[in-house]
Amino acid sequence: MYADTVFTGGIIRTGGTDVPVHDVLAVTDGRISALGPEASAACGPRTTVIDLAGGALLPAFGDGHVHPVLGGLGLRGVPVRECVSVEEIADAVRRWADLHPEAEWITGDGFDPWLAPDGLFDARWLDAVVSDRPVLLRTSDHHTAWVNSEALRRAGYSADAPDPAGGQVVRRDGSDVPLGTLREFGALNPVLALVPTPSAEEHVDALRDAAARFAASGVTWVQDALVLPDHAEVWVTAATTGPGLPVRADLCFLLEPEGWRERVGRFPADRERVESAAPGLITARSVKFFADGVIEAGTAALLEPYTDCPDSHGMATWTPAELAEAVTAVDALGFRPHIHAIGDGAVRAALDAIEQADRTNGPRDRRPVIAHAELIDPADLPRFKTLGVIAGLQPLWAQCDPLMTELILPRIGTERGRRQYQIASLLTRGARVAFGSDWPVTAHEPLRGIATAVTRQTPEGTPEGGWLPEERIDTATALAAYSAGCAHQAFEEKDWGALRPGMRADLVHLAADPVTTAPADLAHLPVMGTWLAGRRTYGAGLSTPSRAAKG
User: Fold this and answer.
1) Which of 121, 176, 360, 414 would you call most buried, defined as having the most Cβ atoms within 10 angstroms of its Cβ?
2) How far apart, in whole angstroms, are the C-alpha atoms of residue 181 and residue 187?
3) In the chain, pLDDT over 70 holds for what percent of residues?
């Protein structure tokens, strides 16, 4: 039987850290059918031959923690992501407001939280450019917002109003007057609720825009790590209408402390509705918890107080007891907990909750995820392997950039600062690691994260030798964390994440072999093509009329 497609003219890396390489791969009916000489022999008169042009074919990437719908929507507001100063942001807001006089709200997404001293942004800076309409800008970590006075007024945030539960309205020094900086979802949500909701069509278009970006980066599977009540239908519509989607996904239903017992009972029906509507394309087997906030905002939950605020341990979203009860309830329904935990206190609470679920519901292969795990106490490192917890890490964060030097290190000090993003330490202790981007928080391209995991350097190449160089990993290990690691997280390691006969042909063609590419150049290595189950989703390709493929 002849193959549908044969790849030749480059190196075929089948995945993992110690595996053979080949020079020909054949695909039939969306699955890998042969490697090496057998693949060459499968080249027939109607076979499409893809010339790798000296590049490399690898297992396609996954993204173990990303926000496609939110990221796609965020592309539509004020373009502040590339701004490098408060003044530049204000100018962008002014220009956008002038171009959109019909917009009731002015919103933007993704600016750097260190652009203002101590991450404190003043409403008056925005008032100077737009005072008659509300302005809402979210930092790249999405845990902080900068608003103008009109947005504060509409949300009811005044000197007399207390902080909402689960959030902080930062006040001006020496007064109770709101500054214009809001921290955590308890403070952000009342403002977000006032912003006009995009239409269903706009949601679907946003998801399609995001999915096209993933395909262009070599990604074929994503974990949507924050599915709001209406987002599941967005996924189903996008996947089952029009051109469909170039990626598959698992959805994480959000579970918040308020009313969680009533909400969790609806999850099984939600799962059934999604999976029956888009079988083979979308699963809905995870539930998202926020255990805390982020260190740069002083809201990550720490075991010991903040260095710059000795009376604060941060802001735990759940009490440890209730988090454990909720995780146990979700686990009993067959869902995988996916827990945002940044501080070492939140990581410990998440591990304790998973341990209680295991003790209460009995042992099984549950593969819970603790996402981010930025700061882990040494005593908790071995618990990831013991409890079968996947560390869902964002390797692009493992660099000493201005976020680290201006906001994070001053808040936690030197000793804790050296315990951040312990990728190598987790792997050495046998923990499972799956990489993700957390886009739109940071860039979605896996190769940029892989470059950082290998070098522990900023894009400018600093510091020499890497930041916390003992936590560097090699390129093959980083590639595996973005492919096989994500497949394991999805419970689909027998179907994708490696290139073996019988596995789905989820493939990425890179312009050169990443394993032999200089680490500093990995971030700029071009993606030439992406295939989902043998169907090209990105790249014009270098296909030619059928010819014999060399074995």
Assistant:
1) 121
2) 9
3) 98
How many structural domains does the chain have? 3
Q: What is the pLDDT of residues 432-457, one digit of tens each?
A: 999 999 999 999 999 999 999 999 99
Same domain, 127 and 41: no
Helix or strand holding residue 413 (H, E): helix 409-417
Sign of CA dihedral 424, 403, 179, 146: negative
Reported as a single tens digit per residue, the pLDDT across 353-377 is: 999 999 999 999 999 999 999 999 9
Tokens of 507: 């493939």
Query: Edge-to-edge strand order for the sheet containing 106-111?
Result: 106-111, 135-139, 144-147, 178-183, 168-171
Give the burial string for 55-79 (b: 16+ CB within 10 Å, else e). Answer: bbbbbbbbbbbbbbbbbbbbeebbb
Spatial CB neighbours of 151, under 8 Å, sequence gap ≥ 6: 105, 123, 134, 135, 136, 191, 194
477: CATH: 3.20.20.140
What contacts 47, CB < 8 A, 6 or more positions away? Answer: 2, 3, 4, 5, 6, 546
Q: Model's pTM, two decimal places?
A: 0.91
For every residue of 481-518, DSSP letters joined together read HTTHHHHHHTT-TTTSSS--TTSB--EEEESS-TTTS-
Rg (the chain; Cα; Å): 24
Identity of the residue numbered 21: V
Report phi then psi at 450, rounded to 5.
Answer: -60, -45
User: How far is it, in rounded angstroms, from Cα 304 to Cα 493?
Assistant: 39
Which residues form the domain of 30? Answer: 5-60+501-544
- Residue 12 falls inside a structural domain: yes
DSSP letter for each residue of 153-204:
HHHT--TTSPPPTT-EEEE-TTS-SEEEEEESHHHHHHHHTTSPPPPHHHHH
**Phi/psi zone of residue 284: left (φ > 0), alpha (ψ -120 to 50 degrees), beta?**
beta
Amino acid in the structure at residue 478: A
Q: Strand 56-59 relative to strand 48-51: parallel, antiparallel, unpaired?
A: unpaired
Closest Cα to residue 213, out of 339, 71, 3? 71
CA-wise closest residue to 244 among 275, 198, 278: 278
Assess whether 476 and 514 both reside in one domain: no
Does residue 411 share a domain with residue 266? Answer: yes
CATH code assigned at 51: 2.30.40.10
